[in-house]
Structures are given as C-alpha cells and as structure tokens.
Amino acid sequence: MLCQHVLILLPLIVAAVELISPFFPLAGHRICLVLLGAVFLIVPKKCGLGNWRNVLASALLSGGGAVATYLLANSLSLGPLIASAAVGLAAAVFLAEQQQLVVYLGTFVGMTSTLHFPSIILVAAAGLIGGVLWEVLNEAWNGVGGRLGTLAATAVLAILLTFGGGL
Amino acid sequence: MQLLTGIILGLSWGFAGHTFRQKTKLSAVAVSSLLTLAAALILPGMFVDGPLFALICTAVSYVTMSSTERLNRLWETLMVSAICALVVFFGQNLLVGIGGRLGTFAALSVLIFTVPKAHKHLITGRR
Fold first, then answer.
1. Does B44 touch chain A (CB under 8 A)?
2. Which domain holds residue A86?
C-alpha cells in the first residue's frame, strides 16, 4: 500500500520541486532522478499487477482516450477542456461506468500541451501507462475526486522524466 | 476581485455538480464532462479572465466526482470547491501543460478537507 502512495504522490512532489527550484536549482534535478528510480525500480516490484487481461484492456481504453483527446484538442483546435469533455461524454453514452472512468483518465493524459508531447506516440505511451496505473493503484485514494487526474499526471510525468520534455 | 469571482464561480459549479450527482442518475464522468463543457464554452466569452475561471470550474467538476463516503453533504462539497478555487488560483503556474494537473489540484483540495475530517479524533482527543 505504501508503494501505491509513493507513486500517486508523484505529481504533488514534482509540483513541490517546481516551487522550491528557484531556491535550490540543483536539488530539483536530483529529486527528479530519485523519483525516476522509485517509479521504475521499486514500484513494479512492490505493487502487484492484477489480471493481465484487465491491465491490457484498461491500457488500451486509456490510450484511446488520450489519443482521441489530443487529436481533437490540437488537430481540430477545440482546446483541451472541450476535447476532454467531448470524449468523456461519448464514453458516458457508450461505455459501462468502470470503462468510462478509464477513458476519462486517458482524456486527462491527452490534455497535455504539445510543448511537452510534440508527438502522438508519447501521448499514446502515457495513455497506456495511465491504464496500467489505474489497475496498479486500485486501492489508493479511492473515492477522492481528482484521483483520475492525479493518475494521468503521474503517467505523463513518468514519460517526461524518462524522455525529457521541458519539466 | 479576480479571486473572489473565481471562488463564487467555483461554488456555483460545485453546487451544480453536487445537485446533478444527487438528483439525477448521470454517471460521475457524464456530470463532470457536462460541467467542463459548460465552463469551457461559457466562461471565456463572459469574462476577461474567463480562461482562468474555466480552469477553476473544471477542477471543481473533478471535485464533484468524489464518492459520498468522502463528500456527502452540500456544505462539504462547497467547502472543498472553495479550497479548490484557491489551489488552482495560487497554483496556476505549477505543472503547466501537464495533463491531469487540474485533477491533481482537485485531489489535493479533497484531501486537505477529508484527511483532517477522518482523523478528527487526533485533534479533539475523542473518537
């Protein structure tokens, strides 16, 4: 359970690093490196993955939501808010409640700026990670509004910390 | 004035979200999407600072996705909506361009309210 909290707290820790970075410019990079180590070395060993079919289904739903939102927001110039809401409404009409939530998580990933994700491949990768996180962190922050966004931000930050992208 | 307007709009969106969740059979995703769509379409055209207010109201729409175990009563949702408006306003330069940042702010607001509530006995000394 502790490892789940470590992972889901990632966006808040990065925000805190952003806040203190003017005072400790070098500390920010070191903290990010430690976080990267935590995400990719400790967490997969400690947090169990459930049924791989559920993980795959969630990853695909989340990735689909992310790509659809990114395309609507940037190719059709709808902007991230309208694009996310449109994909969320479509999911609410056609999918079951649990699946709606996973697609909505993906839409948050797709709201990432083109400055951070210039390529749709990165968006799809972050979306897939978002779906995996949905399955891995199933016990963390249950019932907390904004949990999906936090999972999405964790997925986006995991990609950005790995591949770079202007953090 | 900007902050006050943001809080008032946040409270309005929180009220609407809570009412939709309690009085209709719409799912949490549908309610949040409708509120986000309304905020993104209406507010930027109405106010000079409309884009910021749209962000505040969108984050509040995520707050209203909380379960009834976390936020059951209207005053609780309104309190967290106000906290969320403050968090978005003062955190508007953090995590810029990162998808999920508004959700993170919403979750932070809910936790600021619900964690002390859940551990009230530690402060009052009574269970």
1. no
2. 49-163
Q: Is residue A121 part of a domain?
A: yes
A50: number of Cβ within 10 Å: 11
Q: Do the domain assignments include residue A139? A: yes
CB-CB contact of B103 with A146 (8 Å): yes
Residue in the structure block whose two tokens are 């659809």? A68
Closest CA to A108 of A141, A146, A76: A146
- pLDDT tens digit at each of 167 positions of chain A: 666 776 777 778 777 777 777 776 666 666 666 766 766 666 666 666 667 888 899 999 999 999 999 999 999 989 999 999 999 999 999 999 999 999 999 999 999 999 999 999 999 999 999 999 898 887 788 889 899 999 999 899 888 877 765 55
> Residue A67 domain-assigned?
yes
B45 contact A CB<8A: no
Contact of A141 with B108, CB cutoff 8 Å: no
Tell me if chain B has a CB within 8 Å of the CB of A62. Answer: no
Other CB atoms within 10 A of residue B15 CB: 16
Residues A86, B37 contacting (CB under 8 angstroms): yes
Q: Based on the structure, what is the number of domains in chain A?
A: 1
Residues of B in contact with A80 (CB under 8 A): 99
Which residues between 46 and 85 in chain B have a beta carbon less than 8 angstroms from any beta carbon of chain A?
A: 54-55, 58-59, 62-67, 69-71, 80
What are B104's two structure tokens? 């993170």
The ipTM is 0.92
CA separation for the pair A67, A120 (Å, rounded): 7
In 10 A of CB A110, how many CB atoms?
A: 33
